[in-house]
Amino acid sequence: MNAKIIYGTAWKKERTTALVVSAALAGFRAIDTACQPKHYREDLVGEALQILYGDHGIKREELFLQTKFTAIGGQDASQPLPYNPSSTVEAQVRSSFATSLRQLRTTYLDSYILHSPLETYAKTLEAWRVLVSFQDEGRVRVIGLSNAYDPTLLSRLGRDSGRAVQVVQNRWCERNGWDRKVVEWCRTNGAQYQSFWTLTGSPSLLSHPATAAVAKANNCTPAQVVYRFAQSLGITPLSGTTDEVHMQEDLAVETLNKGEEHFGTLTEFIWG
């Protein structure tokens, strides 16, 4: 499945089940989570999936499920961990992966990514090689990395492991220059670039006159235009909205096709 927009489940807490069900019923078919109790309720995503399968006729194969391995630096040690932090990196990844399959109640994942590079390159490579083994075993379809802003690291991982990075999920926002170098690396290397902070990190893009012009032409919101603009650059945005109207609006962005001549102005604005 080549998802055009992904429903993000971070920070939903106890509302996760209901929101994932609402998002899927609205039309989302790609869902992102993480085995990180600090910010995600992966178990409740699994609960929502069972409701969708049992009560609404949605099939597992119709969905794109993505989750993450989060290293100890991104975990809250006061909450149950999906692995023993004193174990090897390989053992930690394998334990977290098994936890994710159990919580999501699935036998495979469409995408499995490292939540961030680990504290050293050697440890990142060790973890990456475990992901490669999952892919070789047919338990994961694509593998990737999040919070990775150095194209050199992405290339090095592929070169040293023999398996290219296939997904990158990063902040796409003003503060990092809309991550131009990594977006271009993904284009060149055939990897999917997924964006988060797409709206909240881009106030000047939301308020740009070209955005307003496209919004007027399509009778839509500036937020919809920014999502559509990101898609026009080959980016797959994550939407974490909790509003059912906004869910519908976010799903409709790929049909917006008026005023796209203004996207050149927006590209010049963000990347010069």
Describe the fold and architecture:
The protein has 272 residues and is α/β, with parallel strands linked by helices. Helix content is 44%, strand content 15%. It is built from eleven helices and eight strands. The protein has helices at residues 16-26, 42-56, 89-104, 121-136, 151-161, 180-189, 203-206, 209-218, 222-232, 244-251, 263-271, and strands spanning 6-8, 30-32, 64-69, 109-114, 140-146, 167-171, 192-196, 235-239. It has an eight-stranded parallel β-barrel with strand order 1-2-3-4-5-6-7-8, surrounded by five helices. Strand 5, helix 5 (151-161) and strand 6 form a beta-alpha-beta unit. Helix 2 (42-56) packs parallel to helix 3, helix 4 crosses helix 5 (151-161) and helix 8 crosses helix 9. The radius of gyration is 19 Å and the shape is globular.
Give the topology, please.
Blueprint: E1 6-8, H1 16-26, E2 30-32, H2 42-56, E3 64-69, H3 89-104, E4 109-114, H4 121-136, E5 140-146, H5 151-161, E6 167-171, H6 180-189, E7 192-196, H7 203-206, H8 209-218, H9 222-232, E8 235-239, H10 244-251, H11 263-271
Parallel strand pairs: 1-2, 1-8, 2-3, 3-4, 4-5, 5-6, 6-7, 7-8
Helix pairs in contact: 1-2, 2-3, 3-4, 4-5, 8-9
Describe the structure concisely:
By secondary structure, this protein is an alpha/beta fold.
Low-confidence stretches: none
Reading side by side through the largest sheet, how are the strands ordered? 1-2-3-4-5-6-7-8
Total strand segments: 8
Distance between the termini: 33 Å
Number of helical elements = 11
